[in-house]
Each structure stands twice: as structure tokens, then as C-alpha cells.
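Continuing from yesterday's entry. The apo prediction looked reasonable, so today I'm repeating it with flavin-adenine dinucleotide included to see how the binding region is handled. Same sequence as before; SMILES copied from the compound registry.
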Amino acid sequence: MVESKRKGTPANIKHKKDARICIIGGGPAGLTSALYLNQKGFTNITLLEKEESVGGKALTVDLEDSSGIIKNYELGAEYITYTYDHIFYLCKLLNESTSTASSIKIINKTGKTPRFLDPMKVEPFFPIFIAVIKYLLIGFWYRKLINAPNNLGIKDHKLLTMSLKDFMDKYKLKYLKAFFLNVGFGYNLDREFPVIFVYRMLKPRLMLRILGSKIPIVKNLFKRPIAAIAEDGTQGLYKKLAAYLNRSQKEQMVFTNQKVTKISRDNQKKTGSITITINDNKEQEFDVLIFGLPPVFMLKMMEHEQLSEKEISLFSKFKFHPYYVSMFETIHHESNPLPKYYYNNIFPDTLNGKTQPEPVQFTKRWDDTNLIARGYNWELAKIFDSNDPEKLKNIEDVFKTFMKERMEVPEYKLMESSKIYPIVDKYWDTYFPHVSIEDLRNGFYEEFESLQGKDNTYFVGSSLTFEMMETTAAYSEYLVERYF
Ligand SMILES: Cc1cc2nc3c(=O)[nH]c(=O)nc-3n(C[C@H](O)[C@H](O)[C@H](O)COP(=O)(O)OP(=O)(O)OC[C@H]3O[C@@H](n4cnc5c(N)ncnc54)[C@H](O)[C@@H]3O)c2cc1C
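Holo prediction written out below.
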């Protein structure tokens, strides 16, 4: 591979307010970058989204249950927790109402009867209390890095880069497992999940909010719930943001059905050095590029000769955890309604002596319908994507048993897509972009940050912080503040 001969732009250059800025990707990262640029006075922004609608991993679908009730359901992001300052700001700006998400239940791991784990009740009070104090003190000590919008400086702290499992062993925090499950059910916490991410999802502030809800006089003092949902759906929030952005600029800003298929950069040119090819047939010139999807996709869109060895090596390091979400309806279940949220499967479970492949999540979004979203990740998600009939049947059998024995649901019906409701499930292949703990320790994020602005190209998105809407928006704000 040839090292790029181009000089590159100094990283902290501030751009002209009328620079032609192209943002690729209409997910939370691309849209919030556009918002902060617009608020800073940039007037020539074009955002290109390949899908029919913006939202990215926020995907809300309307569905009808068998009694004819139509409601919105989430196949992607759903929860807005107490510490989501940027997202609550968006809700306010866009007049999006939120309501309190129902309390989360974690189904018990062993035994046949469903039993729910309450973080405060599963273990004796005193050890939980000590563990909480330790967690809060550590969080207070590292508060700057935990609250930072980027991942810089984390590599120098052994504690923040150890895996959650090692952290729980070393600091005797096993009593907090149910807390971690509550907020981190989707990530598969025992794999390569560093402590910094634990603190990003369960900030000490959120922990205090959860504890405060147990104290009668204190619990009504909080303005925000522990977790909220957007009433028009999470994707609805981002669609509103796109409409707001289109109104905020003279020319239309957000364009859908625009798949970027090629990027080329010509550093000899003073302006218009970036050429974007859309849907394989249309070319457009820009001065600045903001890449709002995982950087590994740069490798597909650019000729490798145009990339430096460092870029190729850094882009290649991203990994994902596949996640599959589908909908089903429970039948004859009225007498024993399911609680709203069940989470399971962070650590392997056993039933009748065998390790069970199990769903991660069940989400009953509305009280008055029996439609439930179920989510699987990792290898299980891949089975759903494989379309292998035998494997699919096996996994459905496991699910049936699980529903009957653990959740006391005798019958259910999987939702099927129809003309009116075409989307009833979603396989996410870019869920949780991250690098290994080893790469994190070796200074991956410091190296990546040094690429920002080179050749007028920037990167935003959960890949550069952590897979949450809040951290994604905070990073967009940081990038615009720092470089524009
Ligand atoms: C099942 C699930 C549940 C989740 N639950 C929560 C939750 O409860 N709370 C929370 O805070 N977060 C949650 N998340 C995470 C949250 O959705 C992500 O952190 C967030 O969407 C990341 O935003 P992003 O813009 O970086 O990436 P994305 O959302 O992936 O957006 C990238 C965008 O780029 C577009 N794109 C891709 N290729 C091209 C191309 N060639 N040309 C043009 N556009 C392109 C994509 O279509 C997409 O719109 C969840 C995610 C999933 C999948």
C-alpha cells in the first residue's frame, strides 16, 4: 500500500461559514452534526441518507394487533435515560413528548417459574450498599473521562480499560450485576466490554437517580424519569429533526434515498476537493466531508490508493455485534399480562442442565396491546439472518419452551409482514461498533482523533464514542465545537 502523498489539512482548522459540507448518513450522528453546524452559522450543508427515511438504528414501525389497535413499536433504539441531556434537549427543541418507560424486569436465570430480579432486592442490603458506594466513588474519581464526549485519555487508566467481568471480580461488585443488566442488556457485557462504557451507560448520576426512586420523600423531586420513551417513536424524533433542518437552511438540507457509493479526494484543489458519487450515477463536489457511519465503510467507498496506511489500518479495526429484533403477539394471555420489559441472557443460562440460547430482551411497549418485540444478539442473531430452515425451527422451539416455562405464555404468533405493514423485523449488522480492549489500551482513539480534519474529512457516530444516542449526539457537538 502506498502512503498518501497528499499533505493533509491541519486538524484544528476552522472552516468558512459557507463551505460546502457533505454529511453522509442520516442517523443520530449525521443529523445532530448538521444541527450543531447549522446552529453555529454554517449555511451550505447537504446530508445524504441511503434509506427512504432518516433515523439509522432508530427504527419505529406502526403495527396493528389482532384486535385492530394500531400503535408504534421500536425495532431499534428506544430508551432515553435520565442522563441523556442532549436527547432531552432535542425533544424540547422539536416538541417531542416523552413518557416514562415502564420499570424493567430481569427474568430469573434458573428454575422454571418466572421470578423477577429487582437490583435492590436480589442481594442482601448491606453488600449492595457497600458496592454502590464503591461504584460511586470510582465514578466520582474518573468523572471527567466518564463525562467526556470522546474516548481520549482512557487508555492511560487500567481500571477504565479492564473488562466488566474483571472489574466486578477485582472490586467485589458482583452485587451490582442486576444494575448492569438493567441498563446494558443489549451489549453482552461479559465479552470485550470495558469499564469506561459501563460508566457511560450507568453514570453515577443515573445510579443516584435509581436509588433516589426508592426513597419516598426524594423520589418526586426528580424532573426526569429513570428512563423515558419518545411518544411518536425514537425514529419520529429524528424525522422531526430532519424536517427542522430543512426549514433552517435556505436550500433543502436532508436528502433521503441517496446512497453514497464512492468518495474521492483531490488535495491539489483548493475548494471542491471532495467528490461524492450518489447511487452510482450522480457526482457532487464538496469542500468538507463528515462521515456519519462506521469508518470501516470508508474502505468500501474509497480507492485504497487514496487512503494512507494509517487510515486503512485504523478503519479496519472496528467490530460489530449483530442484533435481531422481531415482533410477536401473545394469545390467550389476558389473565396474566406480561410485565413491560424482560431482559435476560447477559451471562449464559442453564435450564435442565443445558446452556440455553435465549433472547436478550422482550419489550411490551403498550399496555393495551399484546404485541411484544423480542431481541437477540450475537450468534443467535446470526441464525435469524442465516435463513437456514432447520436452525430457525430449532431456535423457535427453544423460544416456545422459554415462553411456556419461564413466561407462562402458552401461545404466541409471530408477526408477518404485509402490504400495509411491511417491516416487522430487523437484522442490524452494524450494532455496537467498537474496537478491542487491546486496541483501546494501545491508543486507538488518540490515533483516530489525529485523523480528524485531515483532507477536510471528519468522522462522527457511535464508533468514536459508545453505542448510545446520547454519546453520539455529544460527540457530534464536540466535533463541531472543536473543528468548525
Ligand atoms: C436494536 C437496537 C436497540 C437500541 N437501543 C438503544 C436505546 O434504547 N437507547 C440508545 O440510546 N441507543 C440505542 N441503540 C443505539 C443507537 O441506535 C445508536 O447508538 C445510534 O443510532 C448510532 O447513531 P449513528 O448515527 O452513529 O449510526 P446509525 O444509526 O447506524 O446511522 C448511520 C446512517 O447512515 C446511513 N448510511 C449507511 N450507509 C450509507 C451510504 N452509503 N450512503 C448514505 N447513507 C448511508 C444509514 O442508513 C444510517 O441511517 C440501539 C440500537 C439498536 C440496533
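Comparison notes:
- The chain has three domains: 21-56+236-315+435-483, 106-224, 321-428.
- The domain at 21-56+236-315+435-483 is CATH 3.50.50.60 (FAD/NAD(P)-binding domain).
Will overlay with the apo model tomorrow.
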